[in-house]
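ARCHIVE CARD
CATEGORY: sequence design from structure
SOURCE FIELD: tokenized fold
FIELD CONTENT:
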């Protein structure tokens, strides 16, 4: 096993915990807001055809810009948001500091990305929107969902 002096110890220890985890303890009903936002997010995904198998197949066949436009917009919004959070030192709604930590690139990210991409291409859905598809009545999505676990 590598030691702290090798530097690998620190990288692996950062991967094993949630660095930005809140230390505040809330009652169970505080999580209902996340359920509400998740349901709303799923409705938006369905209306924008983001979870449409046909749209995803069009993307992988390079036949449509629809999904690339949505993904590209999300990346740009994310980049601007992170920049603003860092610049203005924005805190959480509970007043906790938001911290960003650099992650070292490793080959596992490439392997994981390939598995994710192949799974997405074969099933027509990435893990998050699978729940929206199941909620819309596409019970066939239960198969890849159970294969994830």
């Amino acid at each position: 096993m590598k030691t702290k002096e090798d530097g690998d110890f620190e990288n692996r220890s950062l991967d094993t915990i949630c660095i930005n985890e809140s230390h505040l303890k809330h009652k169970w009903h505080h999580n209902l807001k996340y359920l509400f936002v998740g349901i709303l997010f799923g409705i938006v995904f369905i209306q924008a055809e983001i979870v449409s198998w046909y749209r995803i197949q069009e993307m992988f066949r390079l036949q449509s810009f629809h999904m690339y436009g949505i993904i590209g917009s999300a990346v740009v919004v994310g980049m601007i948001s992170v920049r603003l959070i860092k610049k203005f030192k924005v805190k959480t709604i509970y007043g906790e500091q938001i911290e960003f930590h650099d992650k070292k690139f490793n080959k596992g990210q490439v392997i994981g990305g390939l598995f994710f991409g192949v799974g997405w291409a074969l099933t027509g859905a990435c893990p998050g929107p699978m729940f929206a598809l199941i909620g819309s009545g596409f019970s066939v999505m239960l198969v890849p969902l159970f294969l994830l676990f």
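CARD ANNOTATION: The chain has a mean pLDDT of 81. The CA atoms of residues 90 and 135 lie 35 Å apart.
SHELF: design records, drawer C
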